[in-house]
Write a structure and sequence with these properties.
It is a single chain. By secondary structure, this protein is an alpha+beta fold. The chain has a single domain, classed as YlxR-like (Hypothetical Cytosolic Protein, Chain: A, 2-Layer Sandwich), CATH 3.30.1230. The chain is built from 4 helices and 6 strands; from the N terminus they run E-E-E-E-E-H-H-E-H-H. It has helices spanning 50-58, 61-65, 75-81, 100-103, and strands at residues 2-3, 10-11, 17-23, 29-33, 43-46, 72-73. The mean pLDDT is 87. The structure holds zinc ion (ZN).
């Protein structure tokens, strides 16, 4: 069991998305998804849910979980999950089957 850094609920690793921080040249740590769980370094776990990402961002939980001291950029994650306030960009190949994750 792992704890979601957003809602703080425990879930099995298969329900949670692993994310890692990748430091870029300008000192910003970009949070990238690691669905295959193969990337080196410290990872954090999060429900693949924009609401949990928003919670994690608001509480600065990602930076803390990933031991990032500087600026955290969850851009790639936000692109993947969308935003909870309706601005969710849904990739064309996922339209109409957004419930896949919960039914499997
Ligand atoms: Zn969560």
């Amino acid at each position: 069991m792992r704890t979601c850094v957003g809602c703080r609920k425990q879930a099995s690793t298969s329900e949670l998305l692993r994310v890692v921080a990748v430091e870029s040249e300008d000192g910003v740590s970009v949070i990238e998804p690691d669905p295959a769980r193969i990337r080196p370094g410290r990872g954090a776990h999060l429900h693949p849910d924009p609401a949990c990402l928003a919670l994690a961002e608001r509480r600065r939980a990602l930076g803390r979980a990933l031991r990032v001291t500087g600026v955290v950029d969850p851009g790639p994650l936000r692109e993947l999950l969308g935003t909870p306030d309706g601005g969710a960009p849904v990739p064309p190949d996922q339209q109409g089957r957004t419930t896949d994750m919960s039914t499997r």
